[in-house]
Amino acid sequence: MTTKAELIAAMADGAGITRDQAKKALDAFTQTVESSLKSGKDVRLVGFGTFAVSERKAGMARNPRTGESVHRPASKTARFRVGEGLKTALNG
Prior knowledge:
This protein is α+β, with helices and mostly antiparallel strands. The chain has helices at 4-15, 19-38, 84-91; strands spanning 43-45, 49-56, 59-62, 69-72, 75-82. Helices cover 43% and strands 29% of the residues. The longest helix has 20 residues, at 19-38.
């Protein structure tokens, strides 16, 4: 697993910028993805993948500890679909 600090260091080294600049760039990227998803827009990075909002319907779930059925409210979550370029890189 790569931590945020390790990612920032790798970005700084790869782009030839300072770690502070890399941190600002990463923070701007994550904030932009978040605001796009909140407004219902997908974020597509050709060759890498797509960030998209997925909606889960309300329903019944079971509490594994007690076995009791509970109501699960509808919710939204972010999903990432791998792009062809990344998929190819991972599989050789």
